[in-house]
Specification:
Length: about 180
């Protein structure tokens, strides 16, 4: 067998192993950068983190999550979506864009694993868990609903960790006339 024609390829391959292959190094660097960016985007170092699965969507800012062997009603911190009529409350009414907000929330989280992050207060006056909600892919659900125009920023102290991001997302959604802002 003539190995003469293969010698340059073998030499290039060995050089790549000895001195490092720029193409592989670049790919590794880009992957590491993407992973680091993903981690930074989804981390909330000061809040307690729980993991669960979203089971039921009440409206655009409230869901039911199973974690710790129990069902928990979770209210998204920092946002307020239009209301929908609730089965248990015949006095409640569906506001304009309430069903669309609920549908978006359902599309984002129903049946998916979620990461729940607390802020300063653990519960609201109705006993709901107050949380920032993230998907496994890093999507910040609270922010995404505002960004798509189906919720307003709602800052209630002391839960203010992401208040500016929510306000900025609302400004952009209004300017771009997304979601409920398209009708205004």
């Amino acid at each position: 067998m003539n190995t003469r024609g293969h010698a340059p390829l073998l030499l290039v391959g060995l050089c790549g192993l000895v001195i490092g292959c720029p193409t592989l190094e670049r790919a590794d660097h880009e992957r590491t950068h993407q992973e680091r960016t993903h981690q930074e985007r989804t981390s909330d170092a000061t809040g307690e983190v729980e993991r669960g699965r979203a089971r039921y969507i009440f409206d655009g800012d409230t869901i039911s999550v199973t974690h710790g062997g129990r069902q928990h009603r979770v209210r998204y911190i920092g946002i307020d979506s239009p209301e929908v009529q609730h089965r248990r409350d015949p006095q409640s009414v569906t506001e304009p864009f309430g069903e669309e907000a609920r549908a978006l929330n359902e599309e984002l989280v129903r049946g998916k694993n979620v990461r729940l992050v607390s802020d300063q207060q653990d519960h609201d006056r109705y006993g709901r868990d107050l949380r920032y909600v993230y998907l496994d892919d890093g999507t910040f659900v609270n922010l995404e609903i505002v960004r798509r125009g189906f919720a307003r920023a709602l800052t209630i102290r002391p839960n203010t960790r992401h208040a500016e991001a929510f306000r900025e997302a609302e400004r952009e959604a209004r300017a771009e006339r997304r979601g409920m802002w398209a009708a205004r």
